[in-house]
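User: Reviewer 2 asked us to show a designed sequence for the structure in our supplementary figure. I'm pasting the structure tokens here. Could you produce the per-position amino acids so we can include them in the response letter?
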């Protein structure tokens, strides 16, 4: 496995990430034994980063990782995503806390934030972009 330094963090992450989403769907569609064996094999191959989100399988991916990570000999980096309601930014920290699935056993290495609605200027910007192609 090849690794790269993640930005300025100094963390060495595998070039291949184990995705917990719909594509492949191991953490969503497979039985528990298959989930565990697949994740163990990925770690043995040198993958040290798992990406998930509460929206993957309506929480199934994060729920599975809640117990799967406890079964591993090593602890990979973990990234997840939360959605911010940009219409109400009075409690960003609360939105982030509520966005984490309670079953995740340890803090995430990276948190990515998604907007719930695009900015009002975005559609016209996309339109201008398309017209140039």
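Assistant: Here is a per-position design you can include in the supplement:
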């Amino acid at each position: 496995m090849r690794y790269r330094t993640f930005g300025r963090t100094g963390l060495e992450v595998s070039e291949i990430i184990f995705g917990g989403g719909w594509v492949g769907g191991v953490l969503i569609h497979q039985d528990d034994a298959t989930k565990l064996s697949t994740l163990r094999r990925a770690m043995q191959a040198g993958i040290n980063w798992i990406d998930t989100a509460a929206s993957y399988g309506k929480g199934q991916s994060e729920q599975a990782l809640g117990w799967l990570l406890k079964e591993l000999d090593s602890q990979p980096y973990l990234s997840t995503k939360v959605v911010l309601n940009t219409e109400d930014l009075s409690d960003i920290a609360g939105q982030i806390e509520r966005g984490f699935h309670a079953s995740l056993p340890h803090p995430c290495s990276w948190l990515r934030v998604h907007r719930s609605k695009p900015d009002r200027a975005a559609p016209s910007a996309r339109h201008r972009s398309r017209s140039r192609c």
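For the response letter, you might also mention the following. The helical segments are 26-29, 32-44, 60-71, 92-99, 122-132. The domain at 3-132 is CATH 3.20.20.100 (TIM Barrel).
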